Amino acid sequence: MAKKSKKQQQSGGTPATVALTAAGTAFTVHSYEHDPAHPSYGEEAAEAMGVSPDRVFKTLVADVDGRLTVAVVPVAGQLDLKALAAAVGGKRAAMADPALAERTTGYVRGGISPLGQRKKLPTVIDASAAEHATICVSAGRRGLEVELAAADLAALTGAVLAPVGRA
What we know:
- The protein is of the alpha+beta class.
- It is built from six helices and ten strands.
- The protein has a five-stranded mixed sheet. Strands 1-8-7 form a three-stranded antiparallel sheet.
- It starts with 5 loop residues before the first helix and ends with a strand.
């Protein structure tokens, strides 16, 4: 996880929630007890919050032509790497090395948030996010999610919406 300032440590916030608060964006925090034995972080979040898996989105980091890129896709599906590459004008995409993704974003795997990352990366949100009034994404640690409008997430991350997820 990213290094916290004293203010963040006192408030219990993560870089993601601090960024949302600083931007004045409306959001709701959902906390649940993370089970390390659960096979899927995203599905665990959906189950724990009682939210449909098509409204809970996972944050994945991929390498597109040598440049790290963030993809935000529904937990019930998978990332279409070819579609991601096309969405950012690239030719080839592959999943990034997990250790590199953690170092670059400042978050641990299973808790990577598209918000408040250590280094701002190009971001693509699956177009299906626009079908929902709100979506849930990681708030920066396992067992913590934020719910917000997809348009707000896109604005804060500079993301484009494109069909990069598949069932």
